[in-house]
Amino acid sequence: MSLRLSDYDYELPEELVAQYPVAQRDASRLLVIDRRTGSFGHHSFAQLPRLIAPDDLLVLNNTEVIPARLRLPERKAELLLLEQQGPTRWRCWARPGRWFSAGREFRLAGAAGRVLVVEENGDRIVEFERPPDLAVVGEMPLPPYVRRPATTADYERYQTVYAAEPGAVAAPTAGLHFTREMLASLPHAFVTLHVGPGTFRPVKTETVTEHKMHREPFHVGAEAAAAITRARTVLAVGTTSVRVLETLMTRHGEIRAGPGATDLFIYPPYRFRRVDKLLTNFHLPKSTLLMLVAAFAGRDFILEAYREAVRARYRFFSYGDAMLVV
User: Fold this and answer.
1) Domains along the chain with CATH numbers
2) pTM
């Protein structure tokens, strides 16, 4: 059993961290790893339809990323909106935290606000004078390892083509590779999990079991629940889809329609109850996302696959390439 944080580390050259998406969504590379044979296959994402079984049901997360990063024009400071608590009230991350003290007033382009509360975990509760128009004052919240400002192109590319339910502050990145045409050709169902910034929070405890996962809201429609229940095999697209399905199976023993929330932390050993195959991007060393994939395919095998991806010069993280685990 691998419960030390250091058991989920690997060497990654910095130049393999993708800073931009490829020109065509489905032109990303796809590393296929087979748990039965222990083999690797190198493909293009465009080849996915012929690499999976005709009766595999793809389960995708149709959350939509909101332009949640707000920069203050008069100083080097910013807010990242996390959760709306009312028409003008939001829970936020703030940087620099020292400046955003309780009672601090601030001004954005066309909006102003005040910090009401600094919570114990460092989150800020802020009140705007009127609801901020995020299309005007917000930026796409690119992850911290994308070391450049967001551009207009990111409003399209840091969003899946099937995004429909606004509320995420990070993209479900395994879905970024799909085109509308490819998705239309494959059996699929949607769930919604609004990805929070906790996906980027580092694990700070050396013993994995001591880490506490962030909580994220989700929803599953009745038609999707029925389709997932009927499916012979489920191919989960992304770790967020996995966490929705496995949360429902853990709590209820079935895929149940309706709203919910999850703080499920999946790490080895874990018995998967509804996910049969997994499509995912390459994840950060020592991250909870890497631990989930290791639970699905085996830690040693996944780390070997990551070494193979590094050797073959795959592109890593949100704008990088993909891996299919069968």
Assistant:
1) 5-65+144-325 (3.40.1780.10), 69-139 (2.40.10.240)
2) 0.94
